[in-house]
Specification:
two-stranded antiparallel sheet; GPCR_2_secretin-like_CS; Parathyroid hormone 2 receptor; elongated; 9% strand; 6 strands
């Protein structure tokens, strides 16, 4: 005999003396003899399709060949402290913990990134410049997502911008300016050290000259 859903889809001709298959938005009740009670396993608990409380639901096929208006789902309601209630409570606690952990970790990472960026601005800028120059940007787009559409568009625009010759030229110019700035800073430090060293030698010679005069 075909299943209840198959009977519904195929406009199944109900056998005389039976209640026809029907769906009450919870369970699909198969063809059942009149004056008999259909018995089905309770539906899954929430989103856990593989977990039930092991109870049964009942629905009466009346003498006139029609189903009772409502099925009896009393056996499907978990008692206080039952497995279904514990599962629901555990699920809520787990989601609550995941939200808090996720937000805290994200906040700490953002703060750490901000500190690194403030203290090592030039290094961070050099890294952002070197990524496209070395072709590392192509590693970020090995996978082209199809969905959701917003993510697909974001990856597409990112690839177009990074691959643009104008953007690459701008990044190269910024890298050249950064390299020149670092070189000038190193020259100033070297010149400052040289000036301090020559000033110290001059003071030492002056002191020696004064000590030689009576």
């Amino acid at each position: 005999m075909p299943s209840c859903l198959e009977q519904l889809r195929s406009n199944y001709n109900t056998t005389p003396g039976y209640c026809g298959p029907t769906f009450d938005a919870v369970l699909c009740w198969p063809e059942t003899p009149i004056n008999a009670t259909a018995k089905l396993l309770c539906p899954p608990l929430g989103d856990y399709e593989f977990i039930t409380n092991g109870g049964y639901a009942y629905r009466l096929c009346q003498a006139n060949g029609t189903w009772s208006r409502l099925g009896n789902y009393t056996g499907c309601i978990p008692a206080d402290g039952g497995y279904g209630m514990r599962l629901s409570h555990m699920h809520v606690q787990l989601m609550y913990s995941m939200y808090w952990i996720g937000y805290i970790v994200s906040l700490l990472i953002c703060v750490f990134a901000l500190v690194v960026f403030v203290h090592y601005k030039k290094g961070a800028r050099a890294l952002l410049i070197l990524c496209p120059l070395l072709g590392i940007n192509y590693l970020f787009v090995l996978y082209q997502p199809r969905s959701p559409r917003l993510l697909s568009l974001a990856v597409h625009y990112y690839t177009v911008i990074i691959s643009s010759m104008q953007v690459q030229e701008c990044l190269k110019r910024s890298f050249s300016e950064l390299r020149l700035s670092l070189k000038m800073r190193a020259e100033r430090k070297r010149q400052g050290a040289s000036d301090r060293q020559s000033g110290g030698e001059h003071s030492q010679i002056t002191l020696i000259s004064l000590s030689q005069h009576p």
